[in-house]
Each structure stands twice: as C-alpha cells, then as structure tokens.
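Q:
Just now I want nothing more than another pair of eyes on a protein record. Here is the record:
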Amino acid sequence: MDTFENIARKEGYQLIAGVDEAGRGPLAGPVVAAAVILPPDYVNSQINDSKKLSSAKREKLYEIIEKDSLAIGMRVVDADIIDNVNILQASLKAMRDAVLELSVSPDFLLVDGLHCIPIITPQRPLVKGDSLSVSIAAASIIAKVSRDRIMEMYHRQYPQYNFQKNKGYGTREHINAIRRFGVCKIHRKSFHVKNLNQSSFDFSI
C-alpha cells in the first residue's frame, strides 16, 4: 500500500498527501473530501479502502489516523453547490479545498480517481487509489466517517428519510420516503435516478 508513496519519495518529494472523497453517489447530503499526510514509511496494515471496512473499524481507524498523521484537511460541499456545478466539479472542489485546509503544505498529491484536482501542487491520480495507496486509504476513512457523522446529524432533522441508515443513498426505503414526503433541503435536486420499476424518476416532480 506504500508503493506510490515510495515512488514519489524517490522522485524527491517528501510531504505526500493522499486525497479522497466520500458521497458522490447518494441522492442526498454533501460530498466530503479529506487530505491526509502520513509520516514517511508509515505502516498500518489495517488501513484500507473505507468501503471494505465495517463502520466500527472505520471509527477506530479514524482516531488512529487523527493521532498518527502529520496533517489532516477536510472539507464539505453541500447539495446546493452539487446541483449548481455537478457532482464531479463539486468533488474536485472539495478535494482541492481539503488540500488547502492542511496545516502543512504537501509537495505531492496522490488523488483517488481519474482526474487531477485544480491546484498547482504536483499530483498523480490513481484509479481505485484507496486500494493502492495507504495515504489515499487514510483519506477515504477520514472522509467517510466525517460524512456518515454529518448524515447522522441530518437524520435527527429529517427522520422520515432514515439518513442514519441509508446515508442518503438511493435504497428502496429512501426512494419510497421521497415518494411519500417529497424532497428536503439536502436532497440533490439535479440528480435523476431509476425508480423501483426502472422508469425515470425526477426529483422535480
């Protein structure tokens, strides 16, 4: 999990930040991005793609990463901005802002996905980077735990959608709740999804 960090260090970079986001796919809630700089030669075999970990494991690793990292940046982009600029641009903005939030400036970025983020710092995008880079995996855990906590907060405000369980994703229960109660402030009204019968389902109706 440190191959790409080692390649960057051989190229002369020292402060390497992993960058990832959580929440591109849901129908509601923000996209959350994190950037994490780990110490050189940092090893923790438990750190992995957040999607492969249980909620309890992510919470435990969140605390470990928070304690062990040299710096963490985290930023949130809400549903209204997602609707205005589209989810890809919102994700890239969140990742850029997370990097800018770091208390220590990185000299190289490892970014999960296909796209570079709009910042001048040298960087390398990695498809499925959260399974290939310990730095990106650490960022994925910070982003995922942070977003889940936000959605649990929204659950208390909008309990009819059960955000505590579905975290805003388009589950059967969530779509049925939208049909019953309509959309709320944090739904992404630009999103078009398939309903349970596979016909077009538009939040605007």
